[in-house]
Write a structure and sequence with these properties.
alpha+beta, DUF5983, DUF5983 domain-containing protein
Length: about 100
C-alpha cells in the first residue's frame, strides 16, 4: 500500500483529488450526517465548506461494510495510486473515466 515519507514535520501522505460530483449523493449525505452528529453516525470523514476528506484503508477488507460500491471502487483506485485519502472538493478534478453524480 501507500508509502509514507518521513519529514521533519512528521509523515507525508498522498491523496486522490476529485470533484465532489464523483461521490454519490447518499455518500455526501452520510458525510454531512457524520459532521452534524459529532461523529456518532454517517460516513467517517473530515469536512469543510467545500467538501470532504475520506480515509482509504490500507487493506480492502478493512473498508467499512456500508460503503457504497462507487466509493469502494474509488478507494481501490486510490490504493492503486498509493493514496491514503480521497479529497472530494467542489472545485476538485473531474475524471471523465469515472461516474459523476449530480
Amino acid at each position: 500500500m501507500s508509502k509514507t515519507k518521513p519529514s521533519t514535520a512528521g509523515l507525508v501522505c498522498r491523496h486522490l483529488d476529485l470533484s465532489t460530483g464523483h461521490l454519490p449523493v447518499a455518500e455526501r449525505d452520510a458525510c454531512e450526517l457524520y459532521l452534524s452528529s459529532g461523529g456518532t453516525a454517517g460516513r467517517s470523514c473530515l469536512g469543510g465548506p467545500y467538501g470532504w476528506m475520506i480515509y482509504v484503508p490500507t487493506e480492502a477488507e478493512d473498508v467499512p461494510q456500508d460503503v457504497s460500491p462507487e466509493l469502494a471502487a474509488l478507494m481501490v483506485q486510490a490504493r492503486e495510486q498509493d493514496c491514503h485519502y480521497i479529497h472530494f472538493d467542489r472545485d476538485g478534478s473531474i475524471d471523465e473515466t469515472l461516474p459523476f453524480f449530480d
